[in-house]
């Protein structure tokens, strides 16, 4: 993103208390940081405060560690969690795929052209099919087959790779496997899935056949954080495309692909730019 | 509709057999009718054929009754049902409402300005609130209250009005009442409902609260024929609007209103122009 | 708007200087005001800062005048202009129309149901056609015909009504008249027009015929502040609808009506909620 | 397209005369061809008739040449031009690019996965940058640099490749070069361009800067056949994406890329499925 080449991001959340905005903005001013974009929202029902600031240090040098250390006690007064993100930050990520390549192809294109500030550590698949796509992009590809018997082992291997590579983000780009509850827990808030339908409609098997039988006029996709409630995690982004009676189930699938790619890419972009906040199973997304 | 002032519509459906298109188009040519717009579709899975032709008689006089009588035996050969609609046709309709007036206001505006070729016979409500709106448009308003005890009686009264006025179409413009199975059956294929959400998601009570809890980024509306499967009838039209975290449930409701109005009006327009075909619980809509 | 029943709005803009956010947020905290929603943006190219805060006073009493007087010197330090808007504020408005009633009907519906916090002072038209619509809503209607000879006089009468009623906002709801440069200047930043096309395409006469000749697949509408550059004022909101070859120019006009209504209503809502900032011919819109 | 694996397409156009539909549908029946999808439209203003039929031969064998020869005299009676397209038909195409790779990457993905029934003969560019992308897909890449002095020669080389490969379609996937009038004429009706804006707005240089200066809230893309009127050819497909004030010109460019890819791919799909008809500078598109 062009506008992020010289701007840092401070993202924070805490309970709703008088002074939440001021504690952030006053500190930024004291640190001689110029705020270029600011969004805050107080969730009246959840009694939770969210803030995101893009800022540009006005002085030649900016000491990231000092900034964090100085802000820590102030944030503590508000029981505030925060994250500081550098302009050049590229978030380490592992991508899980199966056989379908449309989302992976789209992500790798955006990665290669710098549209998504990702540092892709590995691509993992339970099938060998997408290895050549990965290798064209010079990315390591791990073929980790999965059977009912080996599922626990395979997940352990996946977690190993995530841990060893230090990946902060896990992207399920049409992975087609249900993650175990333990894995969901370990990846809470940092694994993004794309679901091939508008949630919560048409869950379960053959969603596009269900949609066809209802004669739907719109197909959609939902990008969400995974959680234990299968296909029901907190929503980050959604998209739709019009369809009509000439679309048989296989055509709905094809129509769905474009909107899946776009919706997943948008959700990842929001995550990387620290526009997404998660609290109690709901998201706040300062989109644009 | 400007383009319909001199064009008739022939709409038909039948099982998939060789010659289905030809039996219609050959007859129209013999009758010296010029086809201005034609759409046909053969549903491979349902093995059902649908056709809609707009045509302009080339001769000074056009004998509607003779046309129908002459076409009847040919249609019979294909087990084809058909409907001929005159250019000036205004479809008789009864509108059912409750207290919410946004859809009614929108429909009456389109009725008054000739955008919808309706002949509104009556407006029926279980509440008195919308009487003045009806009377400003010089339309009869029937206040028929409903309680669990009087539901059967009230439905009988509603059916009486539909029958006595000869209404062909029943519009449920946010009626908020569940129709009895018998009523659904009697109105099969000629009662259009607008559902305040994207089906099949968020059924039941407080759909917008459910949507809020999931953090949805899109709200929608679905216009469909009613059937015994509550809120699950064949879909005619759907629409969506983007929302974000700043939309509390009551804001989602407000956002939903615009898309409900537009989606219901579009569905009614398609029905009036005989663009909608119903077969085995699915619709074919030759939209534009 | 549900969320505004207890929240005030402070909207401000000034040149880009370090501390712009802090001067606002610190003051709000000192005044014991809890910020429920905050957006700020610094236009890098225009070197201009914009901020909008929704806040809720935490103390029983809130002295509007004292708030303004106390903030004035601080704002002055930043050459900042600001506006404070009370929760119950309904903005006085005059609506200009011609013969087409779709936008007026839509606005009056939203006005009557409280969706738009307007205090409609008068409806002015160069034609008598829409008087009954106004009178059903108990609103004064001024029929001020216009001819080339009387244009100056008529505009003077319009300005008189605006002045005498104290209207802060002027809405051109398909007024179809070109305002004189002087009138544009007097209404700078407070007159919203709806243009029957996506600007800057298809300006001038018969835009829908031009669109038809190009075979466009989308029609749109643009709501903008008027200025001397006819139909080229700063854009507040835009919308589109898909069309196809079956839409003759008169059908494009009909399709355009819905999107004109929605786009104008959205722009007015943004204006009333002080989400729109104007500077050097560009808008910043903190939409939702 | 799944639904095309066993269906042929007959597309035709002629002046508006009684019997235009019948001459097509009667012939198809005589040839024992079952029509699965039919669309016809009569342009009242242009007095021109367009028809597209998808059909499935009912007999084991289907003699393409005999079909054409038999239909020819009947079509001649109506001054009708027509084209018969086989189910397995893959249209030979040459793709012209410059340095930007987003549209090419998208097209090659769809080509490789069979979403677009293309037979890509060559990729031609005035720059060497995209050679590796072409070679990964095993496609010939011709680097033909262009300068004001060599433009005529370069175009001759491009035309040579088109001719020698027998390419029927030329795709300008962000080629960034103005074709000479002669080249436009030679490629009339078979060269598709993607324009980085909604036409006719923001023509000429730096369209996204123009859009930024107007404060647009939507960016779009237009796919059209090229003609001598630069960037003003007959429109095949258009798309839009919402933007706001945080989008600087370079962000508008980035936002535009996605919609350019999708719009170009949709237009090519329509062209390949013979859904697009061209007459007197206007298109009729039987989309879905």
TrEMBL record, chains A, B, C, D:
An example molecular function term from Gene Ontology annotations: formyltetrahydrofolate deformylase activity
Pfam families: Formyl_trans_N (PF00551)
InterPro entries according to UniProt: ACT-like_dom_sf, Formyl-FH4-Hydrolase_C, Formyl_transf_N, Formyl_transf_N_sf, PurU, PurU_ACT
UniProt enzyme class: hydrolase
Catalytic activity: (6R)-10-formyltetrahydrofolate + H2O = (6S)-5,6,7,8-tetrahydrofolate + formate + H(+)
SUPFAM superfamilies recorded: ACT-like, Formyltransferase
Pathway: Purine metabolism; IMP biosynthesis via de novo pathway; formate from 10-formyl-5,6,7,8-tetrahydrofolate: step 1/1
Keywords attached to this entry: Hydrolase, One-carbon metabolism, Purine biosynthesis
Biological process according to GO: 'de novo' IMP biosynthetic process; one-carbon metabolic process
Domain Formyl transferase N-terminal: 94-267
Enzyme nomenclature, EC number: 3.5.1.10
Residue positions of the active site: 231
Assigned protein family: Belongs to the PurU family.
Protein function: Catalyzes the hydrolysis of 10-formyltetrahydrofolate (formyl-FH4) to formate and tetrahydrofolate (FH4).
Protein name per its UniProtKB record: Formyltetrahydrofolate deformylase
């Amino acid at each position: 993103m062009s506008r992020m080449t010289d701007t840092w991001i401070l993202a924070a959340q805490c309970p709703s208390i008088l002074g939440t905005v001021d504690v952030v903005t006053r500190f930024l001013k004291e640190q001689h940081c110029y705020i270029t974009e600011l969004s805050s929202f107080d969730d009246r029902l959840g009694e939770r405060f969210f803030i995101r600031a893009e800022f540009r240090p006005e002085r030649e040098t900016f000491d990231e560690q000092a900034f964090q250390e100085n802000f820590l006690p102030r944030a503590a007064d508000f029981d505030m969690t925060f994250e500081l993100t550098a302009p050049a930050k590229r978030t380490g990520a592992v991508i899980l795929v199966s056989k379908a390549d449309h989302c992976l192809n789209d992500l790798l294109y955006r990665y290669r052209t710098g549209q998504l500030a990702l540092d892709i550590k590995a691509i993992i698949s339970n099938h060998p099919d997408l290895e050549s796509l990965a290798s064209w992009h010079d990315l390591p590809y791990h073929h980790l087959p999965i059977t009912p018997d080996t599922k626990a082992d395979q997940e352990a291997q996946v977690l190993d790779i995530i841990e060893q590579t230090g990946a902060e983000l896990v992207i399920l780009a049409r992975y087609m496997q249900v993650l175990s509850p333990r894995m969901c827990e370990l990846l809470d808030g940092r694994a993004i899935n794309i679901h091939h339908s508008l949630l919560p409609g048409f869950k379960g098997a053959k969603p596009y056949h269900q949609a066809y039988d209802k004669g739907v006029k719109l197909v959609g996709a939902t990008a969400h954080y995974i959680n234990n409630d299968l296909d029901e995690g907190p929503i980050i982004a959604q998209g739709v495309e019009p369809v009509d009676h000439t679309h048989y189930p296989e055509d709905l699938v094809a129509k769905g692909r474009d909107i899946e790619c776009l919706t997943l890419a948008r959700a990842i972009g929001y995550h990387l730019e620290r526009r997404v906040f998660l609290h109690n199973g709901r998201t706040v997304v300062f989109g644009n």
